Prior knowledge:
By secondary structure, the chain is of the alpha/beta class. Helix content is 18%, strand content 33%. It contains four helices and eleven strands, in the order E-E-E-E-H-E-E-H-E-H-E-E-E-H-E. It has a six-stranded parallel beta sheet with strand order 9-8-7-6-10-11, with helices on both faces. Strands 3-2-5 form a three-stranded antiparallel beta sheet, with no helix packed on it. The longest helix is centred in the C-terminal third of the chain and has 13 residues, at 189-201.
Amino acid sequence: xxxxxxxxxxxxxxxxYFPGQYAILxxxxxxxxxxxINPSSPLGTRVLTFLIRVYPTGVVSPxxxxxPAGSSLVLQVPYGGAYLRLAPTLWFIAGGTGIAPxxxxxxxxxxxxxxxxxxxxxxxxxxQHLAFAAELAKLVERLGGDITFxxxxxxxxxxxxxxxxxxxxxxxxxxxxHQFMRCFVAGxxxxxxxxxxxxxxxxxxxxxxxxxPFA
Length: 215
């Protein structure tokens, strides 16, 4: 979509982080949190990439979108407690650019020996805002899981689901023993809160639900 872009930064030294964690970027004294879309290597990585949506009234995202190559930023990493933790069953629920940390976690799962059962529910404003959709479908297929896409505003040719992710969680498919699953939620604060509430009401313990709140 026209208001989505990738920002790639090269750190001065290798940094290590868990898949699902985020960084704080600072520009002109303004700080914002963005999640890395890739996991780091065991020895650390110098290249960090972020999926960012430009908000016309935003203070930081329009500036980041216009940065010329070679610009310098203050980067603090890592932060966040909603990083990948393995369990026999993993649910990933994302809204908008919240797919960034979940993409990192899914890619990290490719290198695990014991493959968990994976389910992904990903919603966005329009089909064009479903970032990495084709890649994610192939990735989840390799993991032996399933993925659901849904949009709020369908465009011509869209034949998939319509509505918020909360309408398509398929809570009846939750594991019978919730202690053997973990849920990772990322996206707009209102969506995250609503999803957490539905999962808790369905019997998932709060300590099995992982989300970093962003304002």
